[in-house]
Amino acid sequence: MTTTSTPIPAPRSSGGPTIVPTVSRNRRTTRGNTELYGWLFMRVSGVVLVALIFGHLFVNLVQGEGINAIDFGFVAGKWSSPFWQTWDLLMLWLAMIHGTNGVRTIINDYAERDGTRMVLKLALYTAFVVVVVLGTLVIFTFDPCPANSPADLLPSFCTA
């Protein structure tokens, strides 16, 4: 028994037979592998962020006296260690890049007009830069005992 194949008409066509063009498998797309790398980054950074966040929560809430112990002095003591500065910096940067990449994907999916997409991405990238720069500056320039400050405003661990 022999079978004959009939091409299925393309959607929104007149219903007649269509010729399907062959596409070379070696043809490069205009985006390259950018979306693939973004997809992979989201998976890897998500796993790393889960570990960083649970470590952060364990140290801040479980290991010590809980939420009541978190104050200016706690943060100052924690950020006096390069380990915790690096931990919090990595958490900030990964969370911001991860979130920005996710919102960028949403903008690409739902913003129909090119102008709207451009404005939304510009606002997104501006917010990303502002938060990352300010957060990095706070982590590395934080001084709990600034010079020439009134002694009554300094924490108890500072020597006036």
Can you summarize the main beta sheet?
none
CA-based gyration radius: 27 Å
Looking at the chains present, what oligomeric state does this protein adopt?
A: single chain
Number of separate strands: 0
Task: Look at the structure and name the CATH superfamily of the domain at 36-143.
Answer: Fumarate reductase/succinate dehydrogenase, transmembrane subunit
Tally of alpha and pi helices: 4
CATH topology (fold) name of the domain at 36-143: 3 helical TM bundles of succinate and fumarate reductases
Terminus-to-terminus distance:
98 Å
Please name the CATH architecture of the domain at 36-143: Up-down Bundle
- Principal-axis shape: elongated
What percent of the residues sit in helical stretches (DSSP H or I)? 55-70%
Strand content bin: under 5%
Q: Structural class, please?
A: mainly alpha
What is the H/E string?
A: HHHH
Average pLDDT figure: 84
Subcellular location: Membrane
GO molecular function: metal ion binding
Pfam family, one: Sdh_cyt
Region (Disordered): 1-25
Detailed description of the structure:
This is Succinate dehydrogenase. Its main location: membrane. InterPro entries: SQR/QFR_C/D (IPR034804), SuccDH_FuR_B_TM-su (IPR000701). It is found in: Membrane. With 160 residues, this protein is mainly α. The chain is 59% helix and 0% strand. It is elongated and about 95 Å long. The termini are far apart.
